Amino acid sequence: MKNFIIRTITSVFFVAVIVTSFLNPQAMTTLFCIVTGMTIWEYCSLVNDRPFISINRFICTISGIYLFLAMMGYNSGLTPATVFIPYLVSIIYLMVAELYMKAKDPINNWAYTMLSQLYIALPLSLLNVLAFRSNGYNIQYSYLAPLSVFVFLWINDAGAYCVGSLLGRHKLFPRISPGKSWEGSIGGGLLVMAAAVLVWYLTEQYGVNDLGLSAAEWAGLGLVIVVFGTWGDLIESLFKRTLGIKDSGKILPGHGGMLDRFDSTLMAVPAAVVYLYTLTLI
Predict the structure, then answer these.
(1) In sequence order, what DSSP letters do the residues of 122-134 get, joined into one string?
(2) Residue 280 phi, psi dihedral angles, 5° rounding
(3) 155: exposed, middle or buried (Cβ count in 10 Å: 0-12, 13-18, 19+)
(4) From the CB of residue 247, how many other CB atoms can be counted at a distance below 10 Å?
(5) CB 58 within 8 A of CB 45
(6) pLDDT (tens digit, 9 = 90+) per residue, 256-273?
(7) Which is it for strands 177-181 and 171-173: parallel, antiparallel or unpaired?
(8) Per-residue pLDDT for 282 more than 60?
(9) What's the pLDDT tens digit per position in 165-174?
(10) What is the pTM of this model?
């Protein structure tokens, strides 16, 4: 009971912070710079505990934060594309530095170093692609797309848990996550698609559907987020099983670490970006 109360309080606080941050571009940038830095730092700490692995936690973290800021600057129109040059320099440094470290396993050091950027820094940075959109004349900030990703993921988690607890019989991926069921995943997905259609209706009613999506396209976005969010959860579970740990950290009472909290997001955000840009090409 005590753990349930702690989890509930943490969840309410977490949701409130995320929702509030998206109402202001400066708040969003500040929060997710912190999230990016803390998540990469946590990841680096975990992999550095593996035998013969030693990656530069400080530079990986600073590079990830810089990528987020660079993506924000470029997508908001504040900076030219040259803003990415320092980031590329940091990646080159992280590769070349291994030549002089005399590590026992430099290949794995390179792999884990690049994974910190590909798995964490890049997906979180793509939130800026969702948040800053051009209307043909100028670039405007909109909370609708990035906030929808998080809301749909939360609805999916709640729906999958409730339906799975009541009806779950067939395991979705027992080798990696024995608690997930096909019934729960399908129930969560249907609930998200219904919520997506409701979002379409409300945004049309109040004239704030700046994505210009139809009801079917909103439902499609919800489905994409559910599928890739579930894969993101499973990928992080595989990562933890490989490391032999239960939680990625203890920073969020009752919820584990930063990777535990943002695992679904790391796959859902890139998938949402691809989906929305694909619609513009059709």
Answers:
(1) HHHHTHHHHHEEE
(2) -75, -15
(3) buried
(4) 13
(5) no
(6) 899 999 999 999 999 999
(7) antiparallel
(8) no
(9) 888 888 998 8
(10) 0.93
